[in-house]
Amino acid sequence: MKINLLKPQSQSSETLVLFSYQTVATKNSGKVSKKSDTTQVILNHSEAEKKFAAAIEKKSITGRVLECVVFRGLGLENSENIVIIGLGKIEELNHEIFRKSATLALDALKNLNSAEASVYFENIVESQDQAPKYVQAFSEGLKLASYEFDELKSKKSEAKEKTFHLITKFAAEAEVKKAFQHGIILADTVNFTRRLGDMPGNLMTPTILAQEAQKAARGVTNLKVTIWDKARIKRERMGGLLGVSHGSVQEPRFIIMEYKGGPKSQKPICFVGKGLTFDCGGISIKPSAAMEEMKYDMCGGANVIGTMMAISKMKLKLNVVCLVAATENLVGPAATKPGDVHTARNGKTFEVNNTDAEGRLILSDALSYATELKPQMIVDAATLTGAMVIALGNIYTGYFTRNKDMKLKIEGAADESGELVWHMPLHDEHVKDMKGTFADLSNISSGKGAGSSTAAAFLEQFVGEGIPWAHFDIAGTGWAVGNRLNYCSKKGASGVMVRTFVELAKSFE
Ligand code: BES
Ligand code: ZN
Ligand code: ZN
């Protein structure tokens, strides 16, 4: 897909995409308000105007949010087809609506079998401070919606390359250009992470995941990738990661990505991810229904790798480290058994009372290692608990932090990115529930319920005192959110939180 940012010009385009606000009937006349005259501003063409006026009269164009009306074969001087997308009420407009509108525009082009469109922001983006956000969101939406995972099919989809020109009088402004570029980088990295998540377990082993991180970082300035193999992981005393890997013939990997965009002395910010490339539950095996979906148990890892790629490509002025613990959780003869005790890198011991609660075990070592870097903050992402899916479904991502400043920063970042996050409880009571009988900790709670909070409480035991830390449980939102967000797959990885994490990183610049 090609996307260009242009100033208005008298070029013709096969398809025009226009926006319309919701038409509001005035009290006395029942006529539509001035704000619906979208098309007049752009076209100034009497034939087309007549058609639109008739359509408005018939209420087939109302400007309702995400309404999409297509006129094909109009034979106008400067275009063949016109697509009119509703933005809803002007006072309720936000950038997420542009992300979703982009999907409608792309679908309309596919249906029209049209290769090219000009998208006019002219009459809807009137002030310069709106332009960066809206243009960025629309280009993100286009790229995100264009993602298709068909590399494992012998017949590829025939989708032709589409070109979009985004037309705004602010196209040459530095802020708008930068936002546009960031939107492209973000969407490309989200699509990169989705591919990692969509790949089946046999083609996305810990070794391959590590290679993908190396490949992606090749040629990127100031970005270094180091991979630890099983022997090194053992030498580094990562008993959690090692213990989980015992059930598989696939070797674990520990992935370290370092980006140096800030002054040498500046402490890094640190992203940590669960890279469980397939989770069958281990000896405490999962039921077989939908078990194939557990290939996406590495999405936390993939999404922090993606975050790292975006940060380094945007050349943000700060130091960032990304750590991913990668392994399979299977049932081989050497697999960890219920009751086994392992020792994490920070010296704490835990008994594995349920081998399916493995994410927290591999993260224990990654968080211990992150702590040693004395970072400004640690954020981790993991498909950690089924309880998260029960609590928030696939709508909100739940996050846990006891740090007020982190909470503010996270809420701000999510507002900027358009992703939905919800602050979840984490209390000393949850910590108590994770006390072990034969070791320091148990990997499952002794209490009832609150499974996501007790999992977070377990993780907290490996984060150094005083380091601002937040844990994001993406079990519900990392996969199959297409019924909520039209630019995501119905069945497939979403790349959730990459956009929010990049915004969060920007707040440390
Ligand atoms: N990977 C799963 C969590 C998960 C469940 C992710 C559903 C996505 C969708 C995790 O390793 C797990 O199995 N957790 C257990 C923990 C329990 C045994 C304490 C769970 O949530 O059931
Ligand atoms: Zn599990
Ligand atoms: Zn898991």
How is the secondary structure organized here?
Elements lengths: L1 E5 L8 E7 L16 H6 L2 H12 L10 E4 L9 E8 L6 H18 L3 E5 L10 H15 L17 E5 L6 H25 L7 H12 L5 E6 L1 H6 L3 H7 L7 E8 L8 E11 L19 H15 L5 E11 L11 E3 L5 E3 L7 H14 L4 E6 L3 H7 L4 E4 L3 H14 L3 E3 L4 H5 L8 E2 L8 H10 L8 E5 L24 H9 L3
Helix pairs in contact: 3-4, 4-5, 5-9, 8-10, 9-15, 10-14, 12-15
Bound molecules: ligand BES and zinc ion (2 copies).
One zinc ion binds next to loops.
Helical residues, percent: 25-40%
Cα separation of the termini: 31 Å
- The quaternary state of the protein chains shown equals single chain
General shape? elongated
**Overall pLDDT:** 93
Biggest β-sheet, characterized? 8 strands, mixed
Instruction: List low-pLDDT spans.
Output: 25-42
Count helical runs.
Answer: 15
- Category by helix and strand content: alpha/beta
Rg on CA atoms, Å: 25 Å
Spatial ordering of strands, largest sheet: 7-8-10-9-13-17-14-15
Counting DSSP E segments of at least 2 residues, the number of strands comes to 17
Q: Which ligands appear in the coordinates?
A: ligand BES, zinc ion
Strand content: 15-25%
Structure description:
The chain is an alpha/beta fold and 509 residues long. Helix content is 34%, strand content 19%. It is built from 15 helices and 17 strands. It has helices spanning 38-43, 46-57, 95-112, 131-145, 174-198, 206-217, 230-235, 239-245, 299-313, 359-372, 386-392, 404-417, 428-432, 451-460, 498-506, and strands at 2-6, 15-21, 68-71, 81-88, 116-120, 163-167, 223-228, 253-260, 269-279, 319-329, 341-343, 349-351, 377-382, 397-400, 421-423, 441-442, 469-473. An eight-stranded mixed sheet has the order 7-8-10-9-13-17-14-15, sandwiched between helices. A six-stranded mixed sheet has the order 1-6-5-2-4-3. Strands 11-12-16 form a three-stranded mixed sheet. Helix 4 (131-145) runs parallel beside helix 5 (174-198). The radius of gyration is 25 Å and the shape is elongated. The protein starts with a strand and ends with a helix. The structure holds ligand BES and zinc ion (2 copies). One zinc ion (ZN) binds at residues 279, 281, 329, 356, 358.
